[in-house]
Specification:
This protein is α/β, with parallel strands linked by helices. It is about 30% helix and about 15% strand. It has a ten-stranded mixed sheet with strand order 1-2-3-4-5-6-7-8-9-10. The radius of gyration is 19 Å and the shape is globular. It binds pyridoxal-5'-phosphate and iron/sulfur cluster (SF4). Iron/sulfur cluster binds near residues 119, 121, 128, 164 and 224.
Length: about 325
Amino acid sequence: MITATPAPAQPASWQHQWREAITDPVELLRALDLDALLPSLAAAGARSFPLRVPRAFLARMRRGDPADPLLRQVLPLADEDRVVAGYGLDAVGDLASRAVPGVLHKYQGRALLVATGSCAVNCRYCFRRHFPYAEEGAAADRWRGALAWLAAHPDVDEVLLSGGDPWSLSDARLQELTDGLRRIPHLRRLRVHTRLPVVLPDRVDAGLLAWVRGLHLPLVVVVHANHPAELDPATARAFAALRAAGATLLNQAVLLQGVNDDPKVLAGLSESLFAQGVLPYYLHQLDRVAGTAHFAVDDALARRLHQDLRRRLPGYLVPRLVREEAGQPYKVPL
Ligand SMILES: *Cc1c(COP(=O)(O)O)cnc(C)c1O
Ligand code: SF4
């Protein structure tokens, strides 16, 4: 096999960047001059849910700062191995709401396709660390089960792609889905929940933009940034291209101790998102998932932070503070 070296001016393809992600915590800490943190690494948590960080995301971390808010989101710390009461494996009732493999139906009018189990980044606070999403992907049977379920449920008019990260799928696999959706007349909106435009902005390439432009349904893209330092000129370009292709852009964040539990940081996130063409949507209280308790912010502080945001920002830049609770018909406002 001949391996070609990409010309220096051309950015590497997103698939190449995906493969080149850092997966070794020691390499990550050395790259940031943080050898001092080596003894605090997790053992068990890191084995079951390994480190994974695209280099484009690493580039936004501050060298030599053990408290860097981006690093904290991805570094498997020994805190994860603690067992904490109230933190379980299926915190938000996903298993109970599975309609058919790969389809979760919790809320009226909306169905969520667990498109795939893959993500470009492994976020330590994520519910995905335990749910068996990998075996459940709706794309696995070329979407047949999910499409049949949607066709049989005329009350569902919005399809959400989530995961995992749906944009980790190839453009061809996405096209296969939307060709199928075209044959279901009661659908009115398509929504994609993705962290790729933030953590690996080159995913928003010509192929993906062609897919967006070719959609027959209005597209809402909910990106996921938790801290303003996650946004840079590359994310701005990705968002601008998506908007130019017709997508509406929203952001969801998770309230995380040591990352964004600070009114100035949250206000800065809203301001930076708006400057890049994205409106804040949700600020989620953490799902109580085993291994994530060290990220929890108590509800009283969460409410104070949210009130502070209301004072500081125009209403349209204040995200809705919610918690997902198993069995509830919507994300519950705090
Ligand atoms: C969060 C979620 C949705 C979307 O809820 P919105 O409030 O419309 O953003 C839909 N389905 C499932 C299963 C969800 O978890
Ligand atoms: S689903 Fe989202 S939050 Fe969870 S690991 Fe993937 S990118 Fe991170």
